[in-house]
Design brief:
Blueprint: E1 6-13, E2 20-26, H1 42-45, H2 48-59, E3 68-71, H3 77-83, E4 90-93, H4 96-106, E5 110-112, E6 125-131, H5 140-150, E7 151-160, E8 165-166, H6 171-176, H7 189-194, E9 200-207, E10 211-215, H8 217-225, H9 237-253, E11 261-266, E12 268-274
Parallel strand pairs: 3-4, 3-6, 4-5, 6-7
Antiparallel strand pairs: 1-2, 7-12, 8-11, 9-12, 10-11
Helix pairs in contact: 2-3, 8-9
Length: 275
């Protein structure tokens, strides 16, 4: 696979910071899910730099080499966390708004690109990282194949899946799991492992560290109503009534829905070696 066809490169400016971002103009529409609509509240609602540091702590022991790329860099919190371990990653994302936040954090090391059509030559990266990405793409196997293409033989492809393993004590998760059927990719870790391209050899199949955080049923209900999760971006009215409204009703029926509750989860962490 070669580089995606593009016309040229353009610069887009961040009005607030004055910094400029290098963006390839593609002749064909890049598929995937863009987080432009929630970029302004993404860190606030997804754990921010604390989450970035925690994931970086779990990922960094598996990194090999100094040429590190994060596919779906988002607002750059994981890239900042990786710097604490001595790794200075480059990053790619579809959302310009998210990448402007990343530029604020890590400087001119990000570019707009579809993770299925990276503007990189073969075998140029030592470690490729994908965190909470495979649920957003049409074909996870193709995305992993593209990650393997740009990763040198002997290098690593590391992914953290978005579907959480929730602690049994997490009563909010026990309700919101009803929304998982709305994800574009509902498959668990086993099919992703089974369908991984032959250019990747499994090294590790485990989990991130347990993550504790404060949340409330009312806060979750508000985020769902505002469609702040990507699986809710384009839900039609019929599906909303059938799937989403029962979850909202159950959340609001919990005793003291505004009370802060301690939640706890972890995420599948899978490491492959490129062959």
């Amino acid at each position: 696979m070669g580089q995606p066809e593009r016309n040229d490169w353009c610069l887009t400016s961040n009005v607030r910071s004055g910094r400029r971002l290098l963006v390839p103009r593609y002749r064909t529409l890049m598929p995937g899910t863009s987080f432009d609509r929630v970029a302004g509240i993404y860190d606030e609602t997804r754990g921010g730099q604390r989450r970035g540091n925690n994931f970086a702590d779990d990922i960094s022991p598996w990194i090999r080499g100094s040429r590190v790329a994060e596919l779906g860099i988002g607002t750059g919190v994981i890239a900042v966390g990786l710097r604490r371990h001595g790794f200075d990653a480059i990053g790619f994302d579809l959302s310009l708004s998210m990448m402007h936040a990343a530029v604020e954090r890590v400087g001119q090391r990000v570019a707009a690109a579809d993770v299925d059509h990276l503007p990189l030559p073969d075998n140029c990266i030592d470690t490729t990282i994908l965190v909470w990405v495979l649920q957003l793409v049409a074909d996870p196997t193709h995305t992993l194949r593209e990650a393997a293409r740009v990763t040198r033989p002997g290098g690593r492809v590391i992914t953290v899946l978005s579907v959480a393993d929730d602690h049994p004590s997490d009563e909010i998760a026990g309700i919101t799991t009803g929304l998982r059927q709305l994800r574009r990719i509902t498959r668990g870790r086993d099919p992703i492992l089974e369908d991984a391209p032959p250019s990747l050899r499994i090294l590790h199949d485990g989990f991130t560290s347990w993550n504790e955080f404060e949340d409330s049923a009312a806060k979750q209900a508000g985020m769902i109503e505002r469609r702040e999760y990507s699986s809710l971006f384009d839900v039609d009215a019929s599906t909303w009534t059938k799937v989403v409204e029962p979850v909202l009703a159950e959340l609001r029926s919990l005793p003291e829905p505004d009370r802060a509750r301690t939640r706890c989860n972890r995420h599948p962490l899978i490491v492959w070696e490129a062959t």
